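sorry for the late reply, my laptop died twice this morning and i had to redo everyting from scratch. anyway the thing you sent over, i finally got around to it. pasting the sequence first so we're on the same page, its 565 residues, then the predicted structure underneath. double check i copied it right bc i was rushing
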Amino acid sequence: MLSCSGDSGDDSTDVTDPVKIIPTNLTLSIEIVGSSSQNPNGDGSGLVRFIATANDAVNFSFRFGTGDSEESTSGVVEYTYSDVGTNPYNVNVLAYSSTNDFASTSQTISVFVLPALDPDITQVLTGGTEKSWKVNAAYDAHFSNGDKQFKYPTWWEASSFSKSNSGFYDDKFIFKADGTYIHETNGDVYGKANYLNQTFGNTGQPINSSNEIEKYSLSNYQTTFSIVKENNENKLSFQDKGFIGFFVGQHQFTIECYDDNNLFVRAVDDQNRAWYIWLTDQEVSTTPSKDLYTNLIWQEEFDYNGKIDDNKWVYEVRDQWYNEELQATTDRLENVIVQDGKLKIIAKRESYNGKSFTSGRIKSNGKFDFTYGRVDIRAKLPGKKGTWPALWLLGSNYDDIDWPKCGEIDIMEHAGNRLNKINAQSDLGVSSLQGDFVPSDQPSGDSNEAIYMTRRVALDTPATGIKLFLDINRFASADVKVMFKILRSDDASDFDEIGYNFFNTTGSPDTVVNASLDINDFKEYEYTANDLDEFIAFSIKIVMQGTNSAEPPRIKDLRAIALAT
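ok and here's the structure:
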C-alpha cells in the first residue's frame, strides 16, 4: 500500500458542522370570532384568527386540523371553518428559522358553524340588515296551541291582549343579516315553569295553575340563529338558549307561514304539544282586532235595480252540489234580483234542468278578495222548512283547486225550520215533556246542531282527574253543558265508541256564574272531575242550547288539564 503527499507535508482540513438556529419562545394565540360567555365557540361564522410569535422565526406554517394549511411570514392568518355544528380541531403551527429548522406547538379548539342561511327567509327576518319583531297581541289567536299532528291550532287560541300581564308582549325579537339574534326581554319573559327553571335557573317565582311563570326574570341576551329547509319546511334554530315568545323548552321553530310583515311560528314541546306565536314587524295596535278595521276598502249597498253588478259579482250556476242539495242555481231574475235597495235570492219550487227547485248563488270570486279585515253583513233569512241560507268565505284559489281544498270560513248558516232555537232536541235538548235539560252519554254526533267535541287527547302519564276552564258568553235564555269521556289505562275499547259523562253530575260549573250582561261579557267557567279511574286519553264535549235566536251562547278559550295521580 503506497501513500503519496505534497510538499506541504500535511494535507488535512477542518470540517465544521453548519450552525442550527432553532426558534424559541413559540406562542400561539387563537381568537374564535364572536366568542363570548354565551357563545364560547363563536358566532357561527366559522372565522378564526391565529397569531404565532417566536424568536428567530422567519416563517410560520399553520395546520388547521382539516387537512388545510397556510404559510405566513408575519405569523398572522385567518381561516374559516365550514363543517356545520360545533366541531373540535387540533391546530398545529411550525415556526421556521433561516436555517430551516423549526419548533412547533399545538392547541385543540372547538368551532361553531351555522348552516348557510336561506336567502328568502333571511330577507324577511332581517330586512336585509336588521329587523325587530313583536307578538301581534292585538289579534285573536296571536298565541295558541294544538295537537302536533296538525299544522294549525286545534285546542286553544288566546284572545287579543288576554296575556297582557304575562311578560312577553313587550319582548323584542331582533334578527340581523350576519346571523345574530338579540332577545330584548324588558326584564322578564313568559313560559312553562319547568322549562324556564331547568334552562335559566329557578328564580323561586310563583307558578300559576297552568304550570306557567308569568314575568319570569330574564335579562336581555344575544346568540345566533340559522334557517334551513328540511322536508320542505323552514326551520329556524337558535344556538344556546335562544327562543321566541312563550318558552316551551325548545330552541327550534318551524316557520309555518309568513309575508313581509308577519311570521307564524310553531314549536313542539316534549309532551308533543304544538305551540304557535304570531309575530309582526309593524307597530302593534293598542286596539283589539275586532275594532282595528276602520278603513273601508269594499262595499255593496245594492243601490240599483235588476241584475247584480258584474263588476262585483258572478253567478254560480250549477245543478250538482256536494251536499245533496235539491235545487239548481240560475242567473235568472226569477232567482237573483236587486230590488228596493236589497239583494233578493229567491227559492222556487219548479222543474228545471232535472231538479224540482231553483235558487241562486253569487260570489265575488275573481272580482274582490282580501287577506285581513272585517266583514259586516246585514241579511234577513227565510223561515221555512227545507231552506238553508248561508254566507261564507272561500279561498281565492277556488277556481284552481275547488272546494274543500281551497278552505272555508262560515259566517252564517241557518236551518229555516228552527226559527227560535239554536239547536235540535237531542243531547241536552229541551224535553218535550219536562222542559228540562236531559243527560246524554252518546259517544258522538247526536242530532244536536250546536255541539263541540275536542279531538282525543293522549297522555304520556296516566291521570285521575280533569280540570277545565272555559270562557262563556251566556244570556239567561241560553245554557251550556260540558261533558267528558276517558279511556282507562286497562281498557282496550275503541275510544270513539265510549260515551260521555257530565262534570259534577249535572254538567254545571264548579260554582254558579251569573248570566252575561251583554254580548261582550264573557265569564270564566271552571269544571272539575276528580277521583276517576286512571286514564290515558280523554275528550271534551260541549253542548249549547237556547230559546232566543238573538241571544245564542258563545264560547272561547277552552283550556283542559289532566290531573296526574
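Residues 323 and 388 are 11 Å apart (CA to CA).
thats about all i looked at so far, will dig more tmrw
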